[in-house]
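BUG-556 | component: ligand-complex export | severity: low

The export step for alpha-D-glucopyranose jobs runs without errors, but we want the raw record kept on the ticket for reference. Input record follows.
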Amino acid sequence: MQKKWWHGKTAYQIYPKSFLDTNGDGIGDLRGIISKLDYLKDLGVDIVWLSPIYVSPLADQGYDIADYYNIDPRFGTMEDMDELLSEAKKRDMYILMDLVVNHCSDEHEWFKKACEDPDGPYGKFFYIKDIVDGKYPCNWRSYFGGPVWEPLPGHPDKCYLHVFHKKQPDLNWENPALREEVYKMINWWLDKGLAGFRIDAIINIKKALPFRDYPADRDDGLSDIGKMLHEAKGVGEFLGEMRDRCFKPHDAFTVGEVFNEKAEELPDFIGDNGYFSTMFDFAETVFGGSQAGWHEASGCSPDDYRNCVFGTQKKIGDIGYISNIIENHDEPRGVSRYIPEGEATVTAKKLLATVYFNVKGLPWIYQGQEIGMENIPVSSIDEVDDISSIDNYKVALEAGVAPETALHFVEMYGRDNARTPFQWTSGENAGFTTGTPWLRVNPNKSEINLADEQADPDSLFNYYKKLIALRKSPEYAETLVYGGFEPYLADVPRVMAYFREGADKRLLILANYQKEARELPLPEGERKAVLSNLPEVGFTESGVFLEGYQAVILEI
Ligand code: GLC
């Protein structure tokens, strides 16, 4: 693997709508982000990914783009964006935007023109088909529920494809004219000084054609789209072209949202000449999921979590550099998911931070993770914004699940969990807005907020700062960034431990992933505590005594 400028960096995801509102409309904005660049710099962040801020009806919170060349006025102006780019540059920080090109919005002018003239050039930007004998071309289920087909406005005999929401018509990547438009847009942004992109839902751009039915997997007679994606061949041709036409000439940094990749394809995706610089590890986020819906999901225990992370490390080896997360805007809060219910103390949160941050790869922090933000309680489906939660709730009820239980699954897996406003202070609206927040603030803002944590040297926030500083320190950077990964005590329940072996140092990350204290063995030789989430490290003759949820980094 070739070394790259970004390997030793720390990356951070901002969900602009919920970060910081500066004009009192209840929606976060670019000026809010600009005003917090120093905060991010102080934390140790170098690379910042912004979830979409383009013009959008926000049917899927901006992942439905109506104009790729303009900023939605709710988020600010192009001048604000230019200022953000230049202010980031002054601080040696890199801004990424979200590249959403599997689909656009049904309010994009391409789609409007396609509706006016389905047989014209813009009709070919989409998948538009005839409805024959009242039947759609195939029985795939969209990610947000219901068929992937919707009648084309103004043409009751035709339909268009949308693998996500019906307001997100899929773009037809088989059409070279569409691809040209996409590349032109990407290059326009990169020429402006953007460092790169996070690449949304990208595996979906290749469809298995011609359209055909797959065996139904629910009573709705539809089939999960994964079966089609598994059969679709040739996404690499599009991705390679995009890399060569856009990313390579700009030396752009890209991180792919890639699910379902096949092991043998990894070098193509993130090898030295990969389609992307890196991609996210989703092994633990998809673990325990069910095609039947959230109500059939089995959850992810500490041992499952460890096994998923270790599995990815083994799979990637030296092929490329993976991106590690515990949460993002589509997932529940990591501390609510990977720490058993009722046990998410500050110590346990520090443990989770320690074990995910130091495996090989680029560590990402999702906004609010650094202060330990948690899932939000839900008392009624009416207070939920997330379209996938609303669909999963409906699916659960249809499967006979009791409403309170169905709501509990929304609490566990819903996307609102990550999207509640950032908790800056314990004050009104957690300091996020002076207006009415677009999404309710987590009632735990008095216990979990940045202002208090900044003032407390033992806070999770200050611990994250230490983790970031350690990974950048001249002493340990080489080992933590490039050192080999070797599991330790991998079959001992409720332990997550591994070595990172660098050119001249060997570190052991050792975590007692349970509330009971215990002694764990250490390899023979000298040992030095480099970091611990608790004040004392109790070395014994043959090992170390760890308190419940204690995690340590030892030099061995
Ligand atoms: C990605 C995004 C998600 C969005 C979907 C459709 O998975 O992360 O938020 O709903 O793509 O664009």
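Assignee comment: Attached the raw record above. The chain has 18 helices and 21 strands.
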